[in-house]
């Protein structure tokens, strides 16, 4: 969920930086957006690994 807040924060900073001509704020915004994208990819990879490892487990039937 943190990836969404980073992306949103980044877009707001980037837009504010562009509107005000503050290149440093714009760069911070781009960095925050990138950080959110990286977090999203990491979470996607974790889910994919979890799905694969869970599908490889034999199912257990209780008596």
Short summary of the structure?
It contains 2 helices and no strands. The protein has helices at 2-20, 23-56.
Could you estimate the helical fraction of the residues in percent?
A: over 70%
Shape: rod-shaped
Q: For the terminal residues, how far apart are their CA atoms?
A: 39 Å
How many structural domains does the protein architecture include? 1
Count of distinct strands: 0
Major β-sheet annotation: none
Structural class comes to mainly alpha
Stretches where pLDDT is under 50 for at least 5 consecutive residues are none
The average pLDDT is 90
The helix-strand sequence is HH
Strand content: under 5%
The rounded Rg comes to 19 Å
Figure out the total of helices: 2
Would you kindly provide a written description of the structure presented here, covering whatever features stand out?
This protein has helices at residues 2-20, 23-56. With 63 residues, it is mainly α. The longest helix is centred in the middle third of the chain and has 34 residues, at 23-56. The model has no long low-confidence stretch (mean pLDDT 90).
Give the helices and strands, then pairings.
Elements: H1 2-20, H2 23-56
Helix pairs in contact: 1-2
List keywords for this structure.
0% strand; 63 residues; mainly alpha; 2 helices
């Amino acid at each position: 969920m943190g990836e969404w807040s980073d992306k949103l924060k980044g877009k707001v900073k980037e837009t504010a930086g562009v509107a005000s001509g503050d290149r440093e704020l714009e760069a911070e915004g781009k960095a925050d957006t990138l950080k959110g994208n990286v977090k999203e990819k990491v979470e996607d990879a974790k889910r994919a690994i979890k799905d694969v490892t869970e599908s490889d487990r034999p199912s257990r039937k209780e008596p």
